[in-house]
Amino acid sequence: MIVGLLAAIGASVGYGVATVLQALGARRSTGLSALRQPAVLGGFALDGLSFLVSLLAFARLPLFLVETVIASSLVVVVLLAHPVLHTPLRTVDLVASAVVVGGLVVLAGAGGSQPAVSAGPTVERWVFVALGLLVVGTVASYRRAPAWVMGLASALGYSGVAIGVRAARTTGTLAAILWQPMALVVALSGLVAVVAYVRALERGPAGLAASLVSVGEVVVPGAVGLAVLGDTVRTGWAVPAAVAIALALVGCLVLARAPGNEVEQHAAT
Fold this sequence. Notes:
2 domains
């Protein structure tokens, strides 16, 4: 469990630092020239490394725990943006950060170590049906849908990534792992998540998109993990875990609308 938990925390910190790096680079340039900024490139590299590290967590811990930890990267963004980008840091942001961390401590006790469970044919079929509906819906609504619809599509996309990684087979040759159905789910879900998120930022407040993703990427994969992927909560920990998730999500919602997080997301668009 310790390895998985450290991996989830490491991925969360990595995603948060990457966001600040990308914002820092975006402030120094305009348009596509930002892609030549070392800070932006470093941020993308750190995103990729964080994803690889998160795979260790998905293979060892229940989805509701891993996704809540990863969603808490908002804490890193808001706290790091204050000294690096000189954004305001409100008292409510500090309180929300403490609430999120407290919720994660409880969830760590509630989750425990749980090996990955490969999805059977029936689960795979339903995952592909859901992914197909998401892709079609995102493409059909892309041009005219409001920000909240694109934010929801992005949240479902990130949820698909988590579900695909958790349900994937992790044994066999590298070729077998990369060519399995769940690998396609991860790739397509990730593409939908990024495209829809950028569109949501174009059409509405950054805090709205961040809030939807923060909630969606915890609730949807967590529910699927508990229902069909073998995730469990330790005996006697169900209520504390539910309360901890709720508190952590409330904290993430507050942080999603914090000045530091708003600036980071606007700078990246």
